[in-house]
Amino acid sequence: MRNERLTERLYVALDFDFMDEALRMVDQLGDTLRSYKVGMQLFYKTGPVILERLHAEGCKVFLDLKFHDIPNTVAGAAKSATSLGVSMMNVHAAGGMEMMKRAKEASVAAAQATGAEPPLVIAVTQLTSTDQQTMNNQIGIPGTVEAAVIRYAKLAQAAGLDGVVASGHELPAIREACGEEFVTVIPGIRPKWAEANDQKRILTPADAMRAGAHRLVIGRPITHAADPRDAARRILEEMGEVLS
Ligand SMILES: O=C(O)c1cc(=O)[nH]c(=O)n1[C@@H]1O[C@H](COP(=O)(O)O)[C@@H](O)[C@H]1O
To answer: Active site located where (predicted)?
Structure first.
């Protein structure tokens, strides 16, 4: 996976209200980037048609709906999402072993039924907007964020999932606990020139690549930039410098 082209290792988060805005961004970015993340904000407005449009443009799609429900319901959701041809989807690790296992199994079965490549199913660990104080005092999980993330990552791996979404801060510990092949998808990425916004556990693109990230997810530093294409190019350059 680390041999993938650089442009396939950066997913742009299309957090927009309307399909037109999202497609305008894809058009603006052109062939600079071809991998996109569609999350709740856009998908709940447009439904699957946004995925059809992105696939028709030859783009890869990470469907980020963060499933978290009883195992049977999540298995059904994973089956439906797989039928939409996405290349990656996520569930909350906090849903537990059976939920994650059923999601992966349902996804593989749905892909096999049509002869399609099964999407990666990955687990959200602790959100990058959560700091230790929030996790301990509000959510009620004791200990360090890193310990909580590692526990979730090991659970996801035991459930047969392909990887996790986590902040770059926990990357080295995840690699040590789960091995090099376990996919790490890293949001909360902020180049030095961008604002943190609501993200708490952030890393620069270069630091995330240095720490061994498989894929980065970046939204506002690109989509809210005065020149999104230039912002994307600068980020790809920063990632590339680490790899060269
Ligand atoms: O699952 C995710 O993609 C995700 C997990 C997480 O812990 N933190 C996180 O920021 N994300 C998503 O990654 C994207 C980050 O966007 P920006 O903060 O604009 O770069 C958003 O679409 C979030 O929903």
So the answer is: 64, 66, 69
Burial class of residue 83 (count of CB atoms within 10 Å of its CB; 0-12, 13-18, 19+): middle
User: Looking at the whole model, is its pTM more than 0.90?
Assistant: yes
Domain-embedded: residue 71:
yes
Residue 1 forms part of a structural domain: no
Domain encompassing residue 233: 6-243
Could you tell me the distance, in angstroms and rounded to a whole number, from the CA of residue 34 to the centre of ligand 1?
18
Q: What tens digit of pLDDT does each residue of 158-213 get? A: 999 999 999 999 999 999 999 999 999 999 999 999 999 999 989 999 999 999 99
- Distance CA(200)–CA(101), nearest Å, equals 30
Backbone phi and psi for residue 87, each to the nearest 5 degrees, phi listed first = -95, -10
ipTM: 0.98
Is residue 68 part of an annotated ligand binding site?
Answer: yes
72 is in an annotated binding site: yes
The best mutation among 11, 41, 64 to test binding of ligand 1, ranked by most ligand atoms within 8 Å of the C-beta, falls on 64
> Helix 49-56 to helix 19-29 angle, to the nearest 10 degrees?
20
Give me the number of domains the chain comprises. Answer: 1
Residue 183 lies in a domain: yes
Report the CATH number that the domain containing residue 14 is assigned in CATH.
3.20.20.70
* pLDDT, tens digit, 9 for 90 and up, residues 97-150: 999 999 999 999 999 999 999 999 999 999 999 999 999 999 999 999 999 999
| Ligand 1, pocket residues at CB < 6 Å | 13, 15, 39, 64, 90, 124, 127-128, 165, 187-188, 197, 199, 217-220
Rounded distance between C-alpha atoms, residue 54 and residue 62, angstroms: 11
Residue 153 lies in a domain: yes
